[in-house]
Amino acid sequence: MQPLENITAMMVFARVVETQSFTEAANSLGLSKSFISKEIAQLEIRLGVKLLERTTRRMVVTEVGRAWYQFCARALQEVQGADAFIRDYHQQPAGNLSIIAPVNFGRRCIVPSLNAFVAQHIHVQVDLDLTDRPVDLQQERYDLAVVVGQTPPAANFHQLTQIEWGLFAAPDYPVAQTPVSHPQQLPRHDYLLFRGAAHTLSLPFRQGKQKLNIDVHSRFRINNSEALLSAAIAGAGIAYLPCYITHEAQQQRQLVRLLPDWQMDDYYSYLVVRQSARPRALVAMFCQQLQAALASDHCFSA
């Protein structure tokens, strides 16, 4: 007797035992009652044992039938698990996702979400390009672009987060030890300012109906906010930075914020989707997950 001969019969027998009915077993398996009856009879012949005692009124599982049922039930469970695995495999998102994002925002805010996304979806491959150069999705073959600016992109975008900017200095920097109380006290200090797309010659302040633009002196300009952060921690001056990038340094008391009651520049991050991005379901799923992750991020929720 070959074991493979009994596989179908084992599943049929397990269902008969569980339903206590040939008719219900046939219905649940999508088979005819006559097929069920024939399969059980042939199984008993092959095994050389009586599995079921049948009368016109009832059906009783024999002692050997109850013991053999345990093996059949495990086999049926394994088959059902295999079917579920294949169903899940086809339902899971799959494909390649290419993304471009600014270096620092991408490293701090996009990469953590991508780590979680890739871990959750084993059939997804991601290509991430971190660069601060401008990108045009009409000309380049990225599926998604993360952009940061003060105005929305032209079209087909999702707003992610508001990015607040502020002034920060090391705790032992003179202005932190004797804090300023008004923006007009700022010009006599040295500043670490951004050189690049977010460069500034004066610092904007808003409080209620008051709006001020204060010209300041910068001896050190850098085109990278991480480098500005390091310079500020080292005590090289007052840095004008996006607040999310300073969160950890503030928690560790490496930086303090100056004039926190005054609002300064507000930028926004956007996720731009290329019109022909594929697969669309994968793109939409990542968009939703990224928006949810950033909405709950303590760096932006304060």
TrEMBL record:
GO terms for molecular function: DNA-binding transcription factor activity; sequence-specific DNA binding. GO terms for biological process: DNA-templated transcription. Keywords: DNA-binding, Transcription, Transcription regulation. InterPro entries: LysR-type_TF_proteobact-type, LysR_HTH_N, LysR_subst-bd, WH-like_DNA-bd_sf, WH_DNA-bd_sf. This is LysR family transcriptional regulator. PANTHER family: HTH-TYPE TRANSCRIPTIONAL ACTIVATOR TTDR-RELATED, HTH-TYPE TRANSCRIPTIONAL REGULATOR. CDD domains: PBP2_CrgA_like. Signal peptide: none annotated. PROSITE patterns: HTH_LYSR. Belongs to the LysR transcriptional regulatory family. Residues 5-62 form the HTH lysR-type domain.
